[in-house]
Amino acid sequence: MDMELEQKQAEIIDELVRRASTCNGEALLPIIIEATSHPSLFAFSEILALPNVAQLEGSTHSVYVDVLRLFAHGTWADYKCNAIRIPHLSPDQILKLKQLTVLTLAESNKVLPYDTLMAELDVTNVRQLEDFLINDCMYAGIVRGKLDQLKRCFEVPFAAGRDLRPGQLGNMLHTLSNW
Q1: Sheet strand arrangement including 153-159
Q2: 96 in the same domain as 78
Q3: Is 77 among the domain residues?
Q4: DSSP code for 28
Q5: Distance (Å, rounded) from C-alpha 77 to C-alpha 58?
Q6: Tell me, what DSSP letter sits at residue 60?
Q7: What CATH number has the domain bearing residue 140?
Q8: Do 12 and 84 fall within a single domain?
Q9: Of 46, 64, 91, 96, which one is least surrounded by beta carbons within 10 A?
C-alpha cells in the first residue's frame, strides 16, 4: 500500500474509532456499516478492539461484531457460508469483501490462477475478473501485479496486509525467529 493510501486509512480509522468510542449498542451499527463500506478502509482490528464494540457480543446486535470480524479476517467464501446469520451486505460491502479476498489469496501465493480467483470471487468470465483486478484492486492501490492472459494468472509482487487473525502474531514471530 502506498504511503498516501496508508495515511488516508489511518485518518479514517482514527475518525471512526473516535466516533465509535462515544456510542454504545445500536448507535454503533451505522459506524460499523460505514467502516465496512468505506472504499479506502481495509483494516478493522482497531474498531473491533473497542470495549463498547465487544459489548455488542451476546446482545441482539452481536451479528455486527461478526460482520466486523468477517471484514477483518474473512473472505467472500466465508460470507457465503454464513450468509444466513450475517446481515445482507450492500454492494459497497460486497466489493470490499471481494477486494479483501484477493489480499488473503495473495498472502500465501504470489501467482493466482484465474480459475481460483473466478471461483473465490464468484466471477463468471475472464474479462470481468481482469476488470475487477485492474479497476478495484490495482487502481485502489491494494495490490500491484501483472495479468498474464496466456498463463491465465495474476502475478502479485505486492499486496497490502490484512488484520492479523487471533493467534497469527505468535506464528509470525516464530517464523521470523527461525528465519
Answers
A1: 111-113, 153-159, 143-148
A2: no
A3: yes
A4: G
A5: 25
A6: T
A7: 1.10.10.10
A8: yes
A9: 91
